[in-house]
Amino acid sequence: MIGRRDFLKAFGAGVALCAGRAAGAQDADAPARAEPCVVDMMRGRERYLIDLRSAEGLRIAAYLLRDVEYGNLIGTPEFDLLRLAAWAQAYMAAYGRYTVLDIHSGLRTREHNAHLEKAAINSLHIPRTGNRFSAMDVDPYGIDREYFGQLVATTKFGGVGWYATHVHFDCRAIPAYWRA
Length: 180
Ligand SMILES: [Zn+2]
Known about the structure:
Elements: H1 4-18, E1 38-43, E2 46-51, H2 55-64, E3 76-77, H3 79-94, E4 101-105, H4 110-114, E5 132-133, E6 135-140, H5 145-154, E7 158-162, E8 167-171, E9 176-179
Parallel strand pairs: 1-4, 3-5, 7-9
Antiparallel strand pairs: 1-2, 4-6, 6-8, 7-8
Bound molecules: zinc ion.
Zinc ion (ZN) binds at residues 105, 125, 135, 137, 168.
């Protein structure tokens, strides 16, 4: 958990990073432009600006994406999934549309998934070896869900599903798109 003071500090750092002004960007080995590595996510009353370069950030992401309904199991979200979320957020911010990703679902135990109507049997929400999973359902606060899904889909990074209350996206080899 991070306190309000740390949160604000992280927020300042995140803004600098997204603008490509990270201190590290001056290193000879660093890429010319900083890759988006900060994601603003909330679940219920908890909201964090997560720095994906830090172990603490990855822990917070895993915590927010736990299976809240079935035993609060905390797994390991695929890094590419988090990076995709950070990229989409930074892209929108660059055009003046800031959003917070309201998490509806991340990891889902097989038991949980089996109890859901219409959930895919081999859903990417279900953890594999090492409790790794590669899907999340989010409501991009203040942003049209259709637009958000289209933006993620342009990356051809995985699957995108549009639902009445959220957008599902995941990482997989062959992109797939669907509407509920
Ligand atoms: Zn989903």
